[in-house]
Amino acid sequence: xxxxxxxxxxxxxxxxxxxxxxxxxxxxxxxxxxxxxxxxxxxxxxxxxxxxxxxxxxxxxxxxxxxxxxxxxxxxxxxxxxxxxxxxxxxxxxxxxxxxxxxxxxxx
Length: 108
Hints:
3 helices
């Protein structure tokens, strides 16, 4: 393009729109990368929770809580029947969702 020619309004709008998309994509990628780092670091905790919740120690602790043996001011949401189950179910659902999203993206 010669210096004396002017850009069309369409070109200006197109570049502005693509600039906004670049910024949106860059932000989303950075946020997802950070979230995945955090998710990866939590994986050991999730595995330990799954083993605990599915084992004899959880049942024993649950029964002790039902008998009032734990301090009343102690946080013990893990002994509710729903809290751990919900986290583990969400974990599974999220993993499936990530596979579906990545598969769709790669297939284009």
